[in-house]
Amino acid sequence: MATVRPSALRCGLAALLCVSWTLPVAAQCEIPPLALAWTNTTVTSDGLGVTRGIEMGIGTPNQIFALRPYTALNNTRVNNVADCDSTSNDTCVGGEGGVFNSQNSPSYSVSIKGNWNGSQVDTEDSTGSYVYFNDRVSFQSAASVYGFPVVMDSEPQGGSFSGLPIGTNSSFLRAAVHGGVAPSQVVGLWAGSRSLTPVDGLMVLGGYDAARVNGNFTSFPVADASAALPCPLQVNITGLFFAGQSLLGDSQAMTACIEPYVQRFVFTPAVAQTFAQITAQNASLYKGMDYNASNTPPGDLTITLSNGYTTNITNDELFTLRRGSDQYGRYAITNNSVVEAGISDNRAKSPASQTPTLGGLFLTFNYLVMDYENNEFRLALAVASDVQTGSSLTTVCTPTATPSASPSPTPAPPWVFSAALLAYPYADSRADPQTTQPR
Ligand SMILES: *[C@@H]1O[C@H](CO)[C@@H](O)[C@H](O)[C@H]1NC(C)=O
Ligand SMILES: *[C@@H]1O[C@H](CO)[C@@H](O)[C@H](O)[C@H]1NC(C)=O
Ligand SMILES: *[C@@H]1O[C@H](CO)[C@@H](O)[C@H](O)[C@H]1NC(C)=O
Ligand SMILES: *[C@@H]1O[C@H](CO)[C@@H](O)[C@H](O)[C@H]1NC(C)=O
Ligand SMILES: *[C@@H]1O[C@H](CO)[C@@H](O)[C@H](O)[C@H]1NC(C)=O
Ligand SMILES: *[C@@H]1O[C@H](CO)[C@@H](O)[C@H](O)[C@H]1NC(C)=O
Ligand SMILES: *[C@@H]1O[C@H](CO)[C@@H](O)[C@H](O)[C@H]1NC(C)=O
Ligand SMILES: *[C@@H]1O[C@H](CO)[C@@H](O)[C@H](O)[C@H]1NC(C)=O
Ligand SMILES: *[C@@H]1O[C@H](CO)[C@@H](O)[C@H](O)[C@H]1NC(C)=O
Ligand SMILES: *[C@@H]1O[C@H](CO)[C@@H](O)[C@H](O)[C@H]1NC(C)=O
Ligand SMILES: *[C@@H]1O[C@H](CO)[C@@H](O)[C@H](O)[C@H]1NC(C)=O
């Protein structure tokens, strides 16, 4: 944290207009952080399909995507238009957060895998086929970058595995810094709220939003390859209580991944079983972790990590009316006499198949800063979602002396960097569909 410099969001975005992406790296820290809202985004041409995610435009003209940040990706991944039989199928296009049609983008440029300038390839699915390409990528109202690496996934039944890469070697973060739209690869993230009174989240590239942080940051080391779980943001849960009753039982700790790509909590099947018992979940009347809306279980969920860091998940965020995808692929209430807990019902799953996960719901109550360069991530309690805050963007950047590519004499559209999109077949360990949910 060599430079800590607050600036207003609007100034930040406006200032981007005056900054050339060919600035030497030494001046990189002068670039304001880039704020990207995590918000409802229209992803279908008829304007009806809306997905909640970080908005990104790919191609010329822009094709709009709403992507969730995903630590298991190093490269931006979007779904192929072919996954949905037709772009007018709002359920499909909305559900996938947008689909890409390369034929509609003259600036689309396919690479062969070996020559593509994204990160070393993420794991691939045996049933998918992948195209690696470069195209223009635009961020919300502000910056765009030419030469941006993107992977397009084509899946027989629709991939729904699109995501914004926040892995430890993210070509997205690298391209944002290289393209001069962010001062550093540090990411600040607040997930917003998916309660019945939803609030937009905010992702900050090159810093964080100090207005959403309530208290001091606690540091955690980034997990390496020898860690228990295959994720960079790993914590040990040593205390887990619902309404004061322990859910952990005899097991002393549970190692979990912090993963914004997933919305709910995923615990072990034994913990889910205990939670269902304590809350008197009636499995013969209600499927999943669902309850009669007139009898919502009372109490908060309290999570304590091994260093003592403690979060309370409030009852009104933990239990919400039953929601699912409507005909436009939107996330909407589907049954107002049923509430669901934000805890995955994996009671019947084998423990080995489950990765305990603190998802977006955890990040409603916690502000996350990823600083891979310093091999750490930080958590602080977030300002409650029902409190309106402006944003106060704070740069996190370590100046380096190394000059970047030679300055270009054409100060064309200042922050235009392009994306590389690459396609080829591969196999991967897909996210457990049970742990993800409609976005
Ligand atoms: C639209 O897509 C959904 C989900 O992919 C699929 O189930 C449905 O059959 C499609 N509808 C039409 C009319 O193609
Ligand atoms: C990150 O990816 C780039 C591009 O594939 C590669 O050159 C580099 O070695 C990777 N870095 C690490 C730390 O693996
Ligand atoms: C991302 O890159 C890092 C460093 O090269 C690597 O350790 C990690 O496994 C990669 N993640 C994925 C999902 O491929
Ligand atoms: C990646 O390749 C594209 C297309 O060749 C190019 O425009 C872009 O500048 C390259 N990006 C980086 C970071 O090298
Ligand atoms: C934050 O840290 C400072 C300095 O260590 C300390 O004085 C302050 O009490 C801490 N604030 C909270 C809310 O823990
Ligand atoms: C979690 O606990 C295990 C066992 O004590 C330890 O090996 C591991 O390093 C811990 N992980 C984290 C992220 O603290
Ligand atoms: C579930 O509800 C049914 C019908 O009201 C009742 O007979 C049954 O005992 C309940 N089961 C549990 C475990 O509460
Ligand atoms: C839900 O609870 C209310 C109040 O206890 C009761 O009247 C209603 O019948 C219950 N609904 C179902 C489907 O059991
Ligand atoms: C969480 O709730 C417990 C019990 O209500 C309370 O003692 C504690 O201070 C709360 N912690 C935070 C961080 O709000
Ligand atoms: C986002 O859209 C959903 C419907 O898909 C709606 O219920 C929700 O209120 C919207 N969120 C915001 C912050 O407007
Ligand atoms: C809502 O769920 C209850 C309990 O499962 C069920 O009886 C009712 O038919 C559902 N209502 C709708 C509109 O699906």
TrEMBL record:
<feature type="domain" description="Peptidase A1">
    <location>
        <begin position="52"/>
        <end position="380"/>
    </location>
</feature>
<feature type="signal peptide">
    <location>
        <begin position="1"/>
        <end position="27"/>
    </location>
</feature>
<dbReference type="Pfam" id="PF00026">
    <property type="entry name" value="Asp"/>
</dbReference>
<protein>
    <recommendedName>
        <fullName>Peptidase A1 domain-containing protein</fullName>
    </recommendedName>
</protein>
<dbReference type="InterPro" id="IPR021109">
    <property type="entry name" value="Peptidase_aspartic_dom_sf"/>
</dbReference>
<keyword id="KW-0732">Signal</keyword>
<dbReference type="InterPro" id="IPR033121">
    <property type="entry name" value="PEPTIDASE_A1"/>
</dbReference>
